[in-house]
UniProtKB/TrEMBL annotation, chain C:
The ABC transmembrane type-1 domain, residue ranges: 99-288
A Gene Ontology cellular-component term: plasma membrane
Domain of life of the organism encoding this protein: Bacteria
GO molecular function: dipeptide transmembrane transporter activity
UniProt name for this protein: ABC transporter permease subunit
Source organism per UniProt: Ensifer adhaerens
Keyword Glycoprotein: no
Topology of the protein relative to the lipid bilayer: Multi-pass membrane protein
Predominant place of localization: membrane
Species lineage: Bacteria, Pseudomonadati, Pseudomonadota, Alphaproteobacteria, Hyphomicrobiales
Cellular compartments annotated: Cell membrane
Segments traversing the membrane: 33-54, 101-127, 147-173, 216-245, 265-288
Cited Pfam families: BPD_transp_1, OppC_N
GO biological process annotation, one example: protein transport
Presence of the UniProt keyword Hydrolase in the record: no
Length: 276, 280, 302
């Protein structure tokens, strides 16, 4: 299998300029992260707020440049700080955001949202753009009736479907999913996760799935990377990481995740009875 | 006698497209020393029903109930003044966004002492002493110094601890926690839940836990009310609910948990549970 | 799947009409706004059909009817419903024609300052850095002058006249629009949909004017209505000071200025243009309030 995405020692520093009283300082958001993802696989990046997982997501999506380190997509080194991005590169990586209420332009109709990437990057004729947008809507479980509606007329789950459809319009190889289900209700979460799994099979997509929810990660990931304060403290296949976490932070994280199975409820109630 | 008793609660909002019924005939009881979880997805009316009980809804909401009583006293017929005496003292509430529920213009010490002054009428020294006690109780290190801090100087978890300290300042009989950990990280969530459970047991409080997270329900509740689209779908003790759910909706909700996934696909609620309206 | 019927809590009708209906619901809740709107529409109709509505030519001087009082007062004549001024011109006709000038001033000034303000504000808010600093400092300088005084100076430099007065007022109003636009752009710029458009490859121009700007329009529309009325007011003030429209133009402010000497002897010559300005400005302001209620989602209930 071919490696789609490879990161070598990615570093990202933020410089906070000083004022009259404050000194200028540098925040190390990423401290040298390396990993690789094979075609058609899912890498989950797990961590809590401030661990640098969203920063990493922005670098992978070519929104922000890395301060140091190499980013290779399909074996080709990409550095956005040097020179302009070609549409070819743009097409390869797309992103789906956490909050489906903020990621769709409220003044754009769904059709225009979906066709925008085509308008910008390709010279597809208008009819074909429309056809492709409608085909994509159907692929994510919506209908052509939704084409002329505005985002506020949709529920959170439907909006996330639209965001996924938009990301797929340019036929990317790699999709960065930044907490795509954490703002959604449980039932909708299941639907969106199923949709993502179906699309991955059908289009041979590679996912980088950023999340803080271990139960979702366990369900969807092939490989797991746990991040803590800008560092990857654990990296391995899903079964390895879940069966035998090495780092103490990973263990804490597992222990903190609430369990919803009958055994742990029984154990808790028994403990409570004892205490009383 | 039940601490909070709600019978056939109906809440309606006036909107541009006509009245919208957010809560439709919900009844429940909470007893002293009991943890009741109200579970539901967005739009299930779980927060609205509690806000209605507290009288915290905007004037566009129309609240009716056959019975809405706290400790045997009718809350609906009560004057706003009387109600204010109970709310904040005997019933208190914590919210989802800890940082947003504290006033950024005042120190956390001022905010907790304000509650003590209004409801308990303590003098200055007494307020400060009690505030330090409370901060210790909720596990804020170095409480005397922390009292002088502003909310933006604290993390989300710390702010939620402050909110809890304010909420339990007057030894309430009932604490309503509206998604208290949703905005927090998992490790912090664990700490806050542990803290809430400890305080609940120590003070023998009634605790209403509003949440959408089945894991949180499993870790905290004694009894569970499942709500869907403003209606109560099921009420059961926590073990029965997870072991042997009666309502189809609860069953679907549990099946949709990724923890319980068997095979490649997650069963979705719409596959397992058909409602007259659509599910999403 | 169940998506088709799933938008139950949000409005399901995708048409523009439904959005308009929602807008109207919130707008019509404010009774003052509706009254303002009705009066404004009345003014527009009056301005458009002035030649047919007005009983006389606004500049025709009836030498036999100088300073005739309104019809209900002793000595009033049925031919001059609201009386005549010092050179025998019919007040009613002049007031009716005056709406043309007032609305014209409002439209032109608002358009000028809106377009300029949006362009500068979007650029400042989007690029930040030194561009922002330069634009905003210039705006601060304009704001540092009392607005009417600055307008007066500008007109004095450009030469008196209605067109120059409008240019001056538009320039004075500019900073408000720039600031408002800049603030809105800055808050919208960090939203996810803008980043998404960036990932899709949108360039600066597209991001600024196609992605961000439409989402900043609500406060700008409100500000535009409010400055519409201020423009009328300022134009009247300039006219009163002799720097705006020149006689015999039937502009309300100029009419006031011409009638200054009759303030104690012939009340109608002064009072009527004053009242016209007052209710026009009041109506537009009321309408602006209603617009704000209807367009600002933060004020919307439910």
């Amino acid at each position: 299998m071919s490696v789609i995405l490879e990161a070598r020692n990615l570093v990202r520093d933020y410089h906070i300029p000083g004022g009259l009283i404050k000194k200028a300082k540098t925040v190390h958001a990423l401290k040298g992260v390396s990993f690789s993802v094979e075609e058609g696989k899912t890498l989950a990046i797990v961590g809590e707020s401030g661990c640098g997982k969203s920063t990493l997501g922005r670098i992978l999506t070519l929104i922000d440049p890395a301060t140091a380190g190499d980013l290779l997509i399909e074996g080709k080194k990409i550095d956005i700080s040097k020179g302009d991005m070609t549409p070819e590169m743009r097409r390869k990586v797309q992103i789906v955001f956490q909050n489906p209420y903020g990621s769709l332009n409220p003044r754009q109709k769904i059709g225009d949202i979906l066709m925008e990437p085509l308008v910008i990057n390709t010279d597809t004729p208008a009819d074909e753009r429309r056809d492709r947008a409608i085909a994509m809507l159907k692929k994510v479980g919506l209908t052509d009736l939704h084409f002329n509606r505005y985002p506020h007329m949709f529920s959170g789950g439907q909006r996330q479907r639209i965001a996924i459809a938009r990301a797929l319009m340019l036929n990317p190889k790699l999709l960065v999913l930044d907490e795509p289900v954490s703002a959604l209700d449980l039932s909708v979460q299941a639907q969106v996760l199923n949709l993502l799994a179906d699309l991955q099979d059908e289009l041979k997509l590679t996912y980088v799935f950023i999340s803080h929810d271990l139960s979702v990660v366990r369900y969807i990931a092939d490989d797991v990377m746990v991040m803590y304060f800008g560092e990857a403290v654990e990296y391995g296949s899903r079964d390895e990481v879940f069966a035998d976490p090495k780092h103490s932070y990973t263990k804490t994280l597992f222990a903190a995740t609430p369990r919803a199975d009958v055994e742990s409820i029984k154990a808790r109630l028994a403990k409570k009875k004892q205490a009383a | 006698m039940a601490l909070l008793e709600i019978e056939n609660l109906v809440v309606e909002f006036q909107t541009a497209s006509g009245p919208f019924r957010a809560v439709n005939g919900v009844s429940m009881k909470v007893h002293e020393g009991e943890v009741l979880a109200i579970v539901g997805e967005s739009g299930s009316g779980k927060s609205v029903s509690m806000l209605a009980a507290m009288g915290l809804l905007p004037w566009t909401a129309k609240v009716t109930a056959d019975k809405l009583a706290f400790n045997g006293r009718d809350l609906l017929g009560m004057s706003a003044n009387e109600r204010r005496k109970i709310i904040g003292k005997d019933i208190s509430m914590i919210f989802q966004e800890p940082v947003a529920s504290l006033n950024p213009c005042f120190t956390v010490g001022f905010q907790i002492e304000e509650v003590l002054r209004i409801h308990l009428g303590l003098d200055k020294a007494g307020r400060r002493k009690r505030a330090i006690e409370l901060f210790e109780a909720v596990g804020i290190p170095d409480p005397a110094e922390r009292l002088g801090h502003y909310p933006h100087q604290m993390s989300g978890g710390q702010c939620q601890r402050v909110m809890i300290a304010i909420a339990i300042a007057c030894n309430p009989k009932l604490l309503i926690a509206d998604e208290p950990t949703t905005a927090l990280d998992v490790t912090i969530q664990k700490q806050i839940l542990d803290l809430l459970m400890k305080l609940q047991a120590e003070h023998n409080m009634g605790l209403i836990m509003i949440t959408h997270n089945m894991g949180v329900v499993a870790e905290t509740a004694d009894r569970v009310v499942v709500q869907y689209k403003g209606r109560k779908m099921e009420e059961a003790d926590v073990l029965t609910l997870f072991e042997n759910p009666k309502s189809n909706y609860t069953r679907a909700l549990l099946a949709a948990l990724p923890d319980n996934a068997t095979g490649d696909r997650l069963p979705t609620i719409s596959e397992l549970f058909v409602d007259e309206g659509a599910v999403q | 799947m169940s998506q088709a019927a799933a938008t139950s809590t949000v409005s399901t009708d995708p048409s523009r009409r439904a959005r308009l209906a929602e807008f109207w619901y919130y707008f019509s809740e404010n009774r003052g706004a509706v009254i303002g709107l009705v009066f404004f529409v009345f003014l527009v109709l009056l301005a458009v059909f002035a030649p047919w509505v007005a009983p006389h030519d606004p500049v025709a001087q009836y030498r036999d009817a100088v300073l005739v009082p309104p019809v209900w007062q002793e000595g009033g004549r049925a031919g001059f419903l609201l009386g005549t001024d010092a050179v025998g011109r019919d007040m009613l006709s002049r007031l009716i024609y005056g709406t043309r000038f007032s609305l014209f001033v409002g439209v032109i000034v608002t358009t000028l300052s809106l377009v300029g303000g949006i362009a500068l504000g979007v650029i400042a808010g989007y690029f930040r850095g030194w561009v922002d600093t330069v634009i905003m400092r210039v705006m601060d300088i304009i704001l540092a002058f009392p607005s009417l005084l600055l307008a007066l100076v500008l007109v004095a430099v450009l030469g008196p006249g209605l067109v120059n007065a409008m240019i001056a007022i538009a320039l004075v109003f500019q900073p408000h629009f720039v600031r408002l636009t800049r603030a809105a752009v800055m808050s919208e710029k960090t939203r996810d949909y803008v980043v998404a458009a960036k990932v899709a490859g949108a360039g600066h121009g597209r991001l600024m004017f196609k992605t961000i700007l439409p989402n900043c329009m609500a406060p700008l529309i409100v500000q535009a209505t409010l400055s519409f009325s201020s423009a009328i007011l300022d134009a009247a003030a300039l006219g009163f000071l002799g720097m705006g429209a020149q006689p015999p133009t039937p502009e309300w402010g100029t009419m006031l200025a011409e009638a200054r000497e009759f303030i104690s002897s012939h009340w109608w010559v002064v009072t009527l243009p004053g009242i016209a300005i007052l209710i026009t400005v009041l109506a537009i302001n009321l309408m602006g309030d209603g617009l704000r209620d209807a367009l600002d989602p933060k004020l919307k209930r439910s």
